[in-house]
Design brief:
- The two termini are about 35 Å apart.
- Strand 12 and strand 13 form a beta hairpin.
- It contains 14 helices and 15 strands.
- Strands 6-8-7-14-15-11-9-10 form an eight-stranded mixed beta sheet, sandwiched between helices.
- Helices cover about 35% and strands about 15% of the residues.
Length: about 500
Amino acid sequence: MKLTDLDAHALSELIHTRQASCREVMSAFLARIDALNPRANAIVNLAPAERLLQQADARDAQLARGESMGWLHGIPQAIKDTGQALGFPTTFGSPLLAQALPAVDSLYVQRMKAAGCIVIGKTNMPEFGLGSNTYNPLFGRTPNAWDETVTCGGSSGGAAVALALRMLPLADGSDFMGSLRNPAAWSHVIGLRPSQGRVPGWPRPELFVSQLATDGPMGRSARDVARLLSTQAGFDARAPLSLHEAARDFVPPADASLRGLRIGWLADLGGHLAMEDGILDVCAAALRRMEGDGALVEPTTLDFDLDALWQAWLLWRRALVAPGVAAALAQPGATRAQVKPEALWELDQAGGLSNADFMQAAALRSRYYEHMRALFTRFDLLALPVTQCWPFPLEQAWPRTLGGRAMQTYHQWMEVTLYATFAGLPAISLPAGFHANGRWPCGLQLIGPPQGDAQLLHAAQGYENLAASLMARRPPEPAPAAFHGSEQA
C-alpha cells in the first residue's frame, strides 16, 4: 500500500518503528500534491519542497537520537486559511489579506506543531469563510473530489478535498455554520465540530461572544479524528471560555459498539427544512445500519419556534461576521468592489443592529439550549442530515431554490447545521452513502449532549466498524492535468 493511502495513525506507527522515514513520507505526499493539486486546487501557498524535506530530515535526526515530538512527528499538515501558521499568510481567501503574515501561531496550530507535524501550506476556503462553496478571487475554486463539475462545500473545502484525494493524511478546519461538517459530507470523510470551548480559539480580537466558530479535526477514520481532537483540545487561560479540564485522550476503543445507544432522528424537522430528494433516504438507511448493531432509533422533532430561532441565528451571525469584513475593508486602498456580495450583505445588515435586539436573540438562544438539554434526557444523540441538498454545479454560488422553496439568504440551504452550533453542542459528520448516480456523497450528522465529544467519537467508531466497506470507498483517481479550479473565481 502507498504511504499516501494510510491514515495518520498508521503513518505514525511506521515512522516511529522506523519502517518509513519522515523524508519518505514527505516525499510521497509532495509527489501526490504535485500530481493532483493543479486540478484539485485544495492546498494553497505550498512551501518550497526543499524546505519541507529539510524539516523532514530534522525529524528523522530526532528519531535517530531516540527523540519523538509526539504522534504527529514528521506528518505533513496543511492549515485551513482561517488559522494562523507562522511563515504563511492568513488570507481568508481575500485579496485584501493576501500578505497578512501572522506574528504567532493559532493555539491549536501550536499544539499540532508541538506534537510533531510539519506545516506544508494552507488549505483553500471561501472568501471570509462565507457560504459552503469553496471559491475565492485569490486562489480560485476547489471542485468536489468525487465529481469536479460540482462543489466540494465549505468552508473547510480545501481540507476535505485534500483528505479525500490522499494529499493529506488528516486535516484541521473550522466550523461556524457547518464548515467542518458540510465539506466532510460531500467528500466522504469525517468532520467533527467540537463542543464550544473544547478547542480554544486564540488569538482572536474578541474572546467571549465570538465563540460560535470553533476549530476542529477532520479525517478518514474516527481514530484519527479523535487523536487530532486530543491534540487540539485543552484549557488555556488565554481563552477564557475554554473547557477547564485536564488534557484527555478522546480515542474510543477499537471494538466500540452502538448497542443500546438511543438516537433521536430529527429528519427534516417535521417539514421545516427544505430537502432535495434522496437525502433523507440515504440518512435513514445509515440509521437502519446502526439499528442492526443494537442502536435504538426513534423519530422526534424540536418543540421550539424554529422560525424565531432562525431569525435569532441570522442576527448573531451578522454581528460576528461583520467585524471581520469591516477590518478587511479598513486596509489601505480597500474598496467594497473587492469583497463578495454575501460578505457585504452581512456587513450592511449588521449596521442597524441594536443592543436590545442582540440581547433578545441571546435570550432566545438560551431557551433553545435548555430545550436541547432536556432532549438529551431522552436520547444519547440526535441525528440530522448534514446537508439539505446534493452538491450543486461548481459555477453556482449557492442554491436559489431548494425542494421547491425559494432560499431567502445565501446560507438558508445550510440551516440544518445551526442546531448544534447555536447550542454550543458537538456534532460529527459521518459518511452515510451516495446519490443514485454514485458520484455524490451524503453525510449523516450526529449531535451530542453538552461536552459529549467522547460519546460522539465512540458512536463514530461503532458506525465505522459496521460500515467499513462504505467508509473505504474512495474517489476515482483523477488525471494529473490542469483544471479550471485554479482560475480566478
